[in-house]
Amino acid sequence: MGFHNTEEAQLIGVSSYNVSLKTEAPTTTYKPPLTNGIVTPIKRSSTSVSIKKNFTNGLSNNFRHSLRGSEVINTPPTTPPSSNLINKKNTVKIECQVRARIPTSTGEFFLHLYRSDRDNKEHLAIVYGDDIRSNSLDSSKPGESEMDRIIRGAYKGRLKPGQRSSETSDADPKVSSVQLPSPLVRIHSECFTGETIHSARCDCGEQLDEAMRLIKLEGRGVIIYLRQEGRGIGLADKLRAYNLQDIGYDTVKANHVLKHPADLRNYDIATQIFEDLNLSTIRLLTNNPDKIEQVENAGIKVIERIPMVPIAWQRSPDPDRIGNEMDQYLKVKVEQMRHLLNLPEALLR
Ligand SMILES: Nc1nc2c(ncn2[C@@H]2O[C@H](COP(=O)(O)OP(=O)(O)OP(=O)(O)O)[C@@H](O)[C@H]2O)c(=O)[nH]1
C-alpha cells in the first residue's frame, strides 16, 4: 500500500500507534495545525454583521427546508464587484476556458470549466440563468474566429444546428453583465463517494441535488464545484479516514490521526469565480459558517444564508434512523465544526 511517507505508515500501523477504542481522543502528542476551515481570521467591514449574532440554526422552523427558512443578513446590497475590496496581490488567477449546455434531470444548466494558476484542477461553475455570464469566457481572444468562440462556449443564447455566429438570434438583448440581483448560490466541495456512488456516510450527494433543485425552482443561480475532495485531503486520505471512522474515530479525529486539520479547504477560487461572473452579493446555501466568513473576507457580500437541512430531518426524524452514519457525521459537524443546524431531539441523547 502506498503511504505518503514512513511517518504516515507508522501512524496508521496499530502496532506503532496507540489506537484505543476506549479513549475518545487518540493518545498522541501530535497537534493538528490551525485549520483553514475552523480558524479563519475575520476582518469585517462596518456593514458586516457578526455571524454568531445573526445566524441561528436551520431547523428552528420545524425541520422545514425551504427558502422560507433562510436568514437574511443585514448587509445592504452593494454595487458590482469592487476590485479594491479584494486584495489583488496574492489573489489566485482564474479563467473560464470552456462552457457548454448540460440538460439534466433537474433542468438545463451551463457548465463552466475554470482553470487557476494555483492548481491543475478543473473547477466548475454550474450556472442556471442566461444573465449570469463569465467575463473571462466572453472576452475575445487574439485571432479567434466565430467558430472558435462557439466551440469554447462564448456564445449567447442557445446553439442550433448549422450555426456559425456566436451571437444567436434567441439571445436576450436585455442581458447585462452588471447590477444583477443577488442569486442563490452554493459552494460545493467534491465528494466522489457521496455524489457518484451515493455513499450514505455523508450528505454531499443529497446537498448537490438539492442545490440544483432549489436553483431551478428560483430560476437563477450558481453552484461552484471546487475540486477539494475530502475537505481538501484528497480521496485516498478520505478513504483512510473512513477506515479510522470504522474503528471508532469521528470525522474530525480521523483527519487528525492522518495529520490533517479537520478542514483544509479555502474558497479563494470560488470568490474569484464570483467576481468573474459579476456576482458581488450572493445568497448562500450552506450550514458552514466558515464558508461565509471566507467569502466575505474576500469582498463578496453574503446577504442571506439558506440552510441545507438533511432531507431525513425535514420530517420528524425517524428514531430508528438515529445512529445512522450520516446522522452521526452531521452531529460531529454541528458539535465540533460550528455547523449551523439544529440537531433533532433524538440525536441530542
Ligand atoms: N475528510 C473528510 N472529508 C469528508 C468526509 N465526509 C465528507 N467529506 C468531504 O467533505 C466535503 C463536504 O463539503 P461541502 O459539501 O462543501 O459541505 P460543508 O463544508 O459541510 O458545508 P455545507 O454543506 O455548505 O454546509 C467534501 O469535500 C467531502 O468529500 C469525511 O468523513 N472526512
TrEMBL record:
SUPFAM superfamilies attached to this UniProt entry: RibA-like
Keyword Hydrolase carried by entry: yes
Family membership: Belongs to the GTP cyclohydrolase II family.
This protein's UniProt keywords: GTP-binding, Hydrolase, Nucleotide-binding, Riboflavin biosynthesis
Organism: Funneliformis geosporum
Pathway note: Cofactor biosynthesis; riboflavin biosynthesis
Catalytic activity annotation: GTP + 4 H2O = 2,5-diamino-6-hydroxy-4-(5-phosphoribosylamino)-pyrimidine + formate + 2 phosphate + 3 H(+)
Protein name per Swiss-Prot or TrEMBL: GTP cyclohydrolase II
EC number(s) per entry: 3.5.4.25
Upper classification of the organism: Eukaryota, Fungi, Fungi incertae sedis, Mucoromycota, Glomeromycotina
Enzyme class: hydrolase
GTP-binding keyword on record: yes
Region (Disordered): 154-179
InterPro entries membership: GTP_cyclohydro_II (IPR032677), RibA (IPR000926), RibA-like_sf (IPR036144)
Alphabetical GO biological process terms: riboflavin biosynthetic process
GO molecular function: GTP binding; GTP cyclohydrolase II activity
Residue stretches making up the GTP cyclohydrolase II domain: 97-130, 182-307
Family annotation (Pfam families): GTP_cyclohydro2
